[in-house]
Amino acid sequence: MSHSLNMGSHDGVQSLAVFVVIGMVITLMIPANANLSSHFYDKVCPQALPVIRTVVQRAINREPRIGASLLRLHFHDCFVNGCDGSILLDDTKNFIGEKTAFANNNSARGFSVVDEIKAAVDKACKRPVVSCADILAIAARDSVAIYGGKHFWYQVLLGRRDARTASRSAANSNLPPPTFSFSQLVSNFQSHGLNVKDLVALSGGHTIGFARCTTFRNRIYNESNIDPRFAASLRNTCPRSGGDNNLQKLDPTPARVDTKYFTDLVHKKGLLHSDQELFKGQGRESDKLVQLYSKNTLAFARDFKASMIKMGNLKPLTGRQGEIRCHCRRIN
Ligand code: HEM
Ligand SMILES: *[C@@H]1O[C@H](CO)[C@@H](O)[C@H](O)[C@H]1NC(C)=O
Ligand SMILES: *[C@@H]1O[C@H](CO)[C@@H](O)[C@H](O)[C@H]1NC(C)=O
To answer: Which residues, in sequence order, are CB contacts of 137 under 8 Å at separation 6+?
Structure first.
C-alpha cells in the first residue's frame, strides 16, 4: 500500500499548513510597492538600452547641452508624485500638466528628444514596452555617463510605469525654487525621503547645463555671499532689467560631469542662491560634503550615483499600476 493512500489526517493538516506557508511567502514576494530591477527589459527587449544610448549620444553630438536638460527632466519627474513620466504629459481638458509650473515654464526642455527616443525604442522592440518614466531614468544615466566617463556610469533600475494624470499645482508645491534657503532645501528633500547628503550630491547635477538670468539676477546684484568679481563678470550677461532668458553656465565646464561645481561653491562662485546655500564655510555637514566632493571625484561619483538611484526609486508605479504610454506626451 502506497504511503500517499495511507495518509492520515495528521499529514493532511501538515500539508495544508505547508500550502498556507507557501501562499504567504508568495504574497510577501509581491510587495505593495514592487521593486525596480536593472534587468527589467533584458528578456522582453534586449535592444532597448543600447538604442536609447545611441539616440542620447546623437542628441548630445547635435546639441551639447541636451543631456543636462534630460537629467533635469528626470529630477523634475521624480519630485512630483514620483518617477512616473508625469512631466511629459501635455495639458488636456481634464488636467493642467506640469510643463507650465514655475520651475518648468520656459525652462524644462528635451521633450522632443524624449519623443525621438520613444519612437526609436518602440520600433526596435516592435511594440511599446519601455515606459516614458524609464526612458527619463535611462536618458539621465546615459547623459551623466557620457559627460562624466566610466566613474559616473551606474546600473539604472527599471520597471516604472507611466502615470495617467499630471498636476501643475503638485509641481508648483514640490519642485524647489532657486530662492530657497538651506533649511527650505533640506525640508523639501526630506519630504521626498532624501537627506542632506542626497541634497548636496544631487545638487552636483549642476556640474552640467545652464541657467537663465532670471534665476540668478537677485544673487549677482543683491547678495553678499558671492565673490564680487564673479558677480561683476555676470552683469553683462544678466542686466538689471531685460535679458531674462540669457544663459549662463552653471559651472565652468557645462558639458563635463566633474567636481568644478563644488570647487566654485568653496570659492563663493555658486551661480544660484540655492547652490551657495550648500556651502557657507560654517563646518556644517553640507559644508564638509562640498569640500570633500570638491577634492575627490570618486567620492562625488559614489554618492551622486547612490543618490540618483534613491531619487529614481521615488514612488514608481509598478506591476499593473499606470500604463506603458504609446506616446510620452499623452495617455493611451
Ligand atoms: C536642490 C534644489 C535645486 C534647485 C533649486 C535647482 C534649480 C535649478 C535652476 C533654477 C536651474 C536653471 C533653470 C533655468 O534657468 O531654466 C537649474 C538647472 C539645472 N538643474 Fe537644477 N536645481 C536643483 C536640483 C537639481 C538636481 C537634484 C538635479 C539633478 C540631479 C538638477 C539638475 C539640473 C540641470 C542638469 C540643470 C541644467 C538644465 C539645462 O541646461 O537645460 N538640479 N536647476
Ligand atoms: C509661461 O510662460 C509664458 C511665456 O513667457 C507666459 O505667457 C505664461 O503666462 C507662463 N505661464 C505660467 C503659468 O506662468
Ligand atoms: C534687490 O533687492 C531689492 C530689495 O529686496 C529688490 O527690490 C530688487 O528688485 C533686487 N534687485 C534685483 C536686481 O534683483
So the answer is: 74, 83, 156, 157, 158, 160, 312
| pLDDT-derived band at 138, boundaries 50, 70, 90 | very high
Are residues 163 and 69 both part of a single domain?
Answer: yes
Residues 97 and 215 in one domain: no
Phi, psi of 327 (to 5 degrees): -135, 130
User: Which residues sit opposite 211 in a β-bridge?
Assistant: 248
Total Cβ atoms within 10 A of residue 122: 19
| Cell matching residue 260 | 568644478
Residue 38, domain member (yes or no): no
Task: Evaluate if residue 255 carries a pLDDT over 90.
Answer: yes
The answer as to whether 42 is a domain residue is no
For residues 76-93, give the mean pLDDT.
Answer: 98
Q: What is the pLDDT of residues 305-325, one digit of tens each?
A: 999 999 999 999 999 999 999
Range of the domain at 211: 182-312
Q: Is the CB of 218 under 6 A from ligand 3?
A: yes
Same domain, 100 and 189: no
* Of 100, 213, 244, 245, best ligand 2 pocket probe by most atoms within 8 Å of the beta carbon: 100
Q: Is 3 marked active-site?
A: no
Cβ atoms 276, 226 nearer than 8 A: yes
The answer to the question of residue 27 being in a domain is no
